[in-house]
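Q: I'm writing up a methods section and want to include an example of the input and output format. Could you take the sequence below and give the corresponding predicted structure tokens, formatted cleanly so I can copy it straight into the document?
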Amino acid sequence: MNNLESNKMIISERRKFLSLMAQSVGLSALGGMVWMGYLEEAKAAPLILRPPGALKEPDFLRMCIKCGQCVQACPYDTLMLAKPGDTKPMGTPFFIPREIPCYMCTDIPCVPVCPTGALDEKSVSKIEEGNKELDITKAKMGLAVVDTESCIAFWGIQCDACYRACPIMDSAITLEYRRNTRTGKHAYLIPIVSSLTCTGCGLCERACVTEKAAIRVLPLELAQGAIGAHYIKGWDKADEKRVEETKSDVTTRTKRSEKSAQDYLNADEELFK
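A: Here is the clean output for your methods example:
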């Protein structure tokens, strides 16, 4: 083998080495991007609002294939797909009410196009004369919560912007009239949100006149409480049924719970003898 052939082989080996190095760097960069995406999903903020009909968050993330069809179907550009840096699961649809709220389309175009059922059509439907019809008022995207310290209606200023913006006026948001004891002349117009009928559309948040909205839509898991089976409305038959359904067959009893109030009273009497 002469020197010329030897040099060609060396150059060829160098090219192969550089090619492998470039591939390694590319794969490392791709792996880094994938890992960053995973971290973004892992630390995703819980304050995320999904489209109408969305399943509960764990089920939604499992079912959503990040196809973006719901985003394309929205006529108001309300929905967005999460991208790197949004601190939300990448590729999943969400909306920000203060920027563009859900305008409560009666035909709910974003739901029927979902190919996997991550947006459940049944949850936003009703049976009317034997026929299933879409009903946007059944949506539960979130729940509006009022900051009473920032809401100027609680200052005595007569503002009803959120009330008038509500698409289910006098149901999802009502106004409660209270006497203004400070002036003795005017009434407070206090906005009251019903967790039963609020859809979480965010039109109230968009309409709020304060610099940072005093009424904000939060995910149901954060905003809505749970009564449990310990309390019951004795005058409400439906509430009695709720308690019956939540009763558990398993009860936990301790030595303390087995004692009656009289047992503790008798114990106190023994101490003072």
